[in-house]
Write a structure and sequence with these properties.
It contains twelve helices and nine strands. By secondary structure, it is α+β, with helices and mostly antiparallel strands. The chain folds into two domains: about 280 residues, no CATH class; about 110 residues, Ribbon (Umud Fragment, subunit A). The chain has a seven-stranded antiparallel beta sheet with strand order 3-4-9-5-6-7-8. Strands 1-2 form a two-stranded antiparallel sheet.
């Protein structure tokens, strides 16, 4: 009796084409597990990620079968994705001749092939099969698209979880800029590629631009923040240009469903505004220019500067040294501190030391600050925008 009921339910599940509930529940559980891993377990090995990503992928195939439905723009998308990825690599490496290169920590040998390149390639393939399966079986379900995109972003976040020191504000900002933001835009665009061209265009993109992290011996030395800008904008720009190409192949009586729509003025303005914000934030936190920005993670400067605010500071000008009453940004014991100057002592004609205190602290800081420790002087407070960084830091500690 029980076996008959199980067989009956199995048959119902297999024949229920739009099993959105089953798909979304499994994806939601997978997402919860990955988020828990980010904050609690912190497993980052390729074997772990391959295993956890493979389980729902295999389950979907067993429940609903593997669909090989041909996509209309499969070959056009493969060609354009390959061409633009190749063009991008060519341009960036030509620029590297002028700005210099950084050497990859990985070496292209048999050991690296077994421990890094092959597992990463398998993870890419499994991830793209999962994305493809959801694009087919969850066709029409926006929630399925959102969940699978968040799952795949969480895989990227897990891979680079130990790359940056997430106990510091600088490390958190680098992690968000260099990993989270590029992963968000990349995974949205890869879903567009899969929906319109199947699994192969997304595989081409990832093999050419992701696998190079462990395959190529050198990288152009753009710096982490400029590289973040490049890899945030690149996939969307590529998708937009390719979508224009695909319009040439579109039958006038049909409508292509695009994951990214860019043909109305307000969408152009939205994308431009978003990229402008991303660009401005990356420029400010890169510490490469006169003005820079950091998030405030303590209440020591309340009420002038609150926890969760961000401050814009001007780099130290040695011809116009800070004065009593100004707020300094300085390094102390590998931490960045933002406190007010309460006293300046002249050691010599060319050397000064500074004593500081947080406005909300009862006592002054118990150490002098030298010129070499000072990063700059606070010029502007921006309310609330540092809250995500602060929350992330507190969760990870």
């Amino acid at each position: 009796m029980v076996l008959e009921w199980v067989a009956f339910m199995w048959d119902r599940i297999k024949n229920y084409k739009k099993s959105y509930l089953i798909i979304n529940v499994i994806l939601a559980l997978l997402l919860i597990f990955f988020v828990a891993n980010l904050f609690l377990f912190k497993h980052t090995s390729y074997k772990f990620l391959i295993l956890i990503t493979s389980l729902p992928t295999v389950l979907f195939i067993l429940l609903f079968g593997y669909e090989r439905k041909s996509r209309r723009f499969k070959y056009e998308l493969i060609f354009y994705v390959f061409a633009y990825c190749a063009l991008f690599l060519l341009i960036t490496y030509i620029l590297g001749l002028f700005i210099g290169f950084n050497r990859n920590v990985y070496r292209l040998n048999s050991s690296n092939l077994i421990h890094n390149i092959l597992p990463y390639f398998i993870l890419i393939v499994v991830s793209e099969i999962l994305r493809y399966e959801i694009s087919r079986k969850g066709d029409g379900s926006g929630l399925s698209y959102v969940l699978v995109t968040m799952v795949l972003i969480s895989i990227d976040l897990t891979l680079f979880l130990t790359t940056y020191d997430l106990n510091t504000g600088d490390g958190q900002i680098k992690y968000i800029c260099a990993v989270a933001m590029p992963s968000l835009f990349k995974n949205i665009v890869l879903l567009y590629f899969v929906k319109n061209g199947g699994i192969y265009p997304s595989l081409v993109y990832r093999v050419m631009l992701d696998l190079k992290l462990v395959l190529l011996p050198i990288f152009p030395a753009f710096g982490i923040y400029f590289e973040s800008i490049i890899y945030t904008i690149l996939p969307v720009l590529m998708a937009f240009i390719i979508s224009l190409h695909l319009k040439q192949f579109k039958n006038s009586n049909e409508q292509i469903m695009l994951s990214i729509r860019g043909y109305r003025l307000y969408n152009y303005l939205l994308y431009f505004s978003l990229f402008a914000v991303v660009f401005a934030i990356n420029i400010l936190v890169s510490c490469s220019f006169k003005y820079n920005m950091i998030a405030i993670g303590s209440a020591s400067m309340q009420p002038k500067i609150n926890k969760g605010d961000a401050i814009v500071y001007e780099k130290l000008d040695k011809d116009n040294l800070p004065k009593v009453g100004e707020i300094l940004v300085f390094h102390k014991d590998d931490k960045t501190v933002v406190h007010r100057i309460i006293e300046v002592v002249d050691i010599s004609d060319k050397e000064k030391i500074y004593y500081t205190k947080g406005d909300n602290n009862e006592t002054p800081d118990g150490y002098p600050i030298q010129i070499k420790d000072i990063r700059g002087v606070v010029k502007k407070r921006i309310r609330y925008i540092g809250i995500p960084s602060v929350i992330l830091g507190e969760l990870i500690k």
